[in-house]
Amino acid sequence: MDAHPETFAQRPVVGVSALVQRNAEVLLVRRGRSPGAGRWALPGGRVERGERLEAAAIREIREETSIDIADLAQIDMAEIIGRDAAGAVESHVVLVVFSGRYVGGDIRAGDDAAEARWVRRDALDRLDLTEDTRRVIKTHGPQA
Q1: What's this model's pTM, rounded to 2 decimal places?
Q2: Alpha-carbon distance 124 to 26, whole Å?
């Protein structure tokens, strides 16, 4: 491959996230960094070179929340395009979204998550969720 590092910096990044449910609750993190700093989202992050998507999702959920998950299934995709004040693209993330089954662990925010918690469906409207998080939960999350 004949690509320069600065070229790769201009290309989209592949990321993963997971919709993890426990009874009528959903696992969410309050993002500590951009994109979406301060907003609530499904936990996840970047895929490392050579890492399979499922393995990345398991690793990222563990790093951000200390929770272990299993039985992953791809359920959605999202694109997060960050722009500066002038409208120029600053970042572009292509996100593969999985569902996963909670298998254990005590929740604790880590990595770039400012906070992590289980949230009941009836409390979701009180949180500042990212648009894609709201859409994925509405489509694939616990029913009201």
Answers
A1: 0.87
A2: 9
Q: Read off the pLDDT of residues 65-88 as tens digits, 9 standing for 90 and up.
A: 999 999 999 999 999 998 889 999
Say if residues 139 and 26 touch (Cβ distance below 8 Å): no
HSE-CB for 121 with a 13 A CA cutoff: 16
Query: Which one has a higher pLDDT value, 3 or 60?
Result: 60
Mean pLDDT over 44-61 rounds to 97
Q: Report all structural domains of the chain as residue ranges with CATH numbers, in order of start.
A: 5-140 (3.90.79.10)
**Which tokens go with 128?**
């500042």
Residue 105's alpha-carbon distances to 16, 31, 63, in angstroms, are: 20, 20, 12
Would you please indicate which residues are annotated as catalytic (active-site) residues?
115
Q: Give me the residues paired with residue 120 across strands.
A: 25
